[in-house]
Every structure is written in C-alpha cells, then in structure tokens.
Design a protein that fits this description.
By secondary structure, the chain is of the alpha+beta class. The radius of gyration is 23 Å and the shape is globular. Helices cover 35% and strands 22% of the residues. The longest helix is centred in the last third of the chain and has 18 residues. It starts with 5 loop residues before the first helix and ends with a helix.
Length: 381
C-alpha cells in the first residue's frame, strides 16, 4: 500500500478546505476503493463523498489545478474496471441519493446519481410504474452508474438500454462548469453555441464533428442494437432536426461529464407475467434457440450458463432455487412474457414452447406463473 505523496497531501488539503462532504485519503479507504466487481485493483489518489453540486464542481476544479484525474463512482458493480483508477474517486452513494421528484402523470422521475435502482422502483411502484433497465445488481446499482455504463438487463429485448430512458442530464463539465443536456431543435444550436464557455464550444464543435463524419458514423458502428460502449455519435446523427448531447454522455463512464441529476422515464408495470426456463445441454444450444424467443416477443431473455448454475447449487442462499431445475443443464434461457392477463401472457409462452419443440430446442421447459415461482428463477439469475 503506497503512501500519499506531497502533491496528494496538498490536493487533500485543498479539497478539505472546499468541500462540505468528507475527504478521505487514508490508506484504508484507498484500499477499499481500489477494487470493484471486476478483476482489477488500482489504488486511487483519494476518495471524496460530495454532498451537493457545489462539492462536485469544487472537486473537479481543484483536481484540475493539481493535474489529477477524477472518477465518478456509484456502487462499483461494473465488471470491466470502470470504477477503479489512480484518480480522485467521487462516491455519490453516501449523500447524493435523493429522488428529487416523481411525476406519475408524465411518467418521469428526477434523481440524483446515487439513487439505487430498487429504491427508485419501490417509489415508482406506488404508481404502477418502474425504471425498465433491470441490472442484476439492482439492489445496489445506482442510477449514476447505470447512466455511466449505459446499463441494461434481461428486459432489454423489450425495453432497450438506459440510453432509451433518459430525458435530460444536469452535468458538470471538465472545467467545473454546469450544463443541462437534453434534446433540442437544431435551430437552437447557433444560440447555444455563442460565447466562450465550454458548453458553447460543445455546441459549436460536436455538430460539425458529426457532419464531417456522417457517413462513417452511420456505417461504421456495429449493426446490433445492444451496444453499451460510450461516445454514441450514432445516436446523435439523426434526421429529425434535433440534437441531444446527453446521448454522448450516456455510456461514457464518467469521462466526458459528471452527472448531478437526471430526468428518467418510467414505464407501466406489466399486469401479468409468465416465465419460462428452457433447459439446454450447452450454451451453443441455448443460443440457437434465441431467435425463436425474439420472434415470440419475449420481454426478458437471459442466458445462465453452467458456471453460474454450479455456483448456485453450492450456495446456501441459492441452492433451493437451483433445486427447481430439471436434470443437469449446461445452460438455461430464462424468458418472461407480459400481458394484460395471465392467460394472455401464458398464450405467448405456449406459442414459444410449441415452436421450440418443433425446432428441437431444449430438453426440458419449466413454466413459472405464481409470484413465488417467478421469484425463484429471478433470484437464480
């Protein structure tokens, strides 16, 4: 474990003098924040816990003066090392976790970045609504982290990704200035591009960047829709007369801007759900069956491989869930079908069952209709 350098000590002192939230540069805290859910371990320079927007702006400005990078962090549930690095880590989960507003009529919620997804969904459930991107870590994943990673989950076949459910972002830019990023008419771009601010420069240069590279942007991005990589110029190169810089920030993992608040869209909770667990001898066999699942309009499609199933069997918490399996599958496909009634959802599941049998997919099918049955398979996932 390394000791803070003189430069780090000066940075720490400057942050302590400016922030209302905690500033921790001790070895124990730096060790705790050196890991996330990935295989990587990188000790940060220090950790701050901002209480408000002023703290975030001050952190970015002070870090810039000391030539130190900053790294926004929610729950650290990323699997690719997104929330570790030799930087000043900003943990938003301690204080900036307020649901600022929830409007059932417009089906929107305004949230701070440290709001946990399950907390938002509990609040929205009172209005029969929920935030659709469903991370498997929803009981700890934060909205700021989901925006940074452009998260999704099993329901992406129906609801898409986080980028499809964000209306506006209030952010802090790299110079410590604030901006609101939302869909605007291209007619408003010249007005916003006036001045010497960083925000004005963005409105001058990004449209030109898109125009100069339009053909490459439209043909060079992968054709599949489930893409969590950042810098989504493809989502900005539209012909509808609008420009939305928030599309560029979502998925950029905190490298372009730090989110202060977000307005996100909510969707109605399905009235009825029927689940289907297809059992397969191998991952390849399960993958071969997914086209039928997509054609059957399954709302959720999730692959669970043998490694996860074996771990579940050895887990005291999940062993009972794994006992519902038939035989020893090499992979499962967990599917959910939605409808206005159980009968409607069941009919969709039955159509896929018939198609899989006709095509020889899977050796067993287990249907889940009661809340308990659904919970067992969801927890296994």
């Amino acid at each position: 474990m390394t000791r803070p350098t003189l430069a780090a000590s000066e940075l720490e002192a400057a942050l302590r003098n400016a922030l209302a939230g905690e500033v921790l540069f001790d070895g124990y805290t730096r060790h705790l924040y050196s890991t996330d859910a990935s295989m990587y371990a990188i000790e940060p320079i220090g950790v701050v816990f901002p209480r408000n927007a002023d703290d975030v702006m001050a952190t970015i400005q002070i870090a810039a003066r000391h030539d130190a990078p900053v790294l926004p962090r929610g729950a650290g549930t990323g699997l690719c090392g997104q929330t570790v690095g030799h930087a000043v880590v900003m943990d938003f989960s301690r204080y900036m976790h307020e649901i600022v507003a929830l409007d059932a009529q417009s089906r929107t919620a305004r949230v701070q970045p440290g709001v946990v997804q399950d907390d938002l969904n509990r609040a929205a459930a009172a209005h029969d609504l929920f935030f659709a991107p469903d991370t498997s870590t929803s009981n700890r994943a934060t909205l700021g982290g989901m925006i940074g990673n452009n998260s999704c989950g099993a329901r992406s076949a129906r609801y898409g990704m986080t980028i499809d459910h964000v209306d506006t972002l209030d952010v802090v830019l790299s110079d410590g200035s604030c901006a609101t990023l939302a869909r605007i008419s291209t007619e408003d771009v010249p007005r916003l591009a006036r001045g010497d601010s960083l925000e004005a420069r963005l409105y001058r240069e990004i449209p030109q960047l898109i125009a100069d590279n339009l053909e490459v942007i439209r043909t060079g991005f992968p054709p599949h829709w489930r893409r969590s990589g950042g810098y989504r110029l493809d989502r900005m190169a539209t012909d509808d007369g609008t420009l939305d810089l928030s599309r560029l920030v979502i998925g950029s993992e905190g490298t372009l801007a730090v989110v202060l608040e977000a307005t996100v869209r909510l969707v109605p909770i399905p009235r009825a759900v029927v689940g289907l667990a297809g059992h397969f001898d191998s991952v390849d066999a399960a993958l071969a069956a997914t086209d039928d699942a997509l054609e059957a309009d399954a709302a959720a499609i999730e692959l669970i491989d043998q490694l996860i199933l074996d771990l579940a069997r050895r887990s005291p918490i999940h062993a009972q869930r794994a006992s519902t399996l038939t035989g020893d599958p090499g992979a499962l496909l967990w599917l959910e079908f939605y409808g206005d009634s159980v009968g409607e959802a069941r009919a969709s599941a039955e159509r896929l069952e018939a198609k899989w049998r006709a095509h020889g997919h899977g050796y067993a099918l287990v249907r889940a209709e009661t809340p308990l049955e659904l919970q067992r398979f969801r927890e296994l996932r």
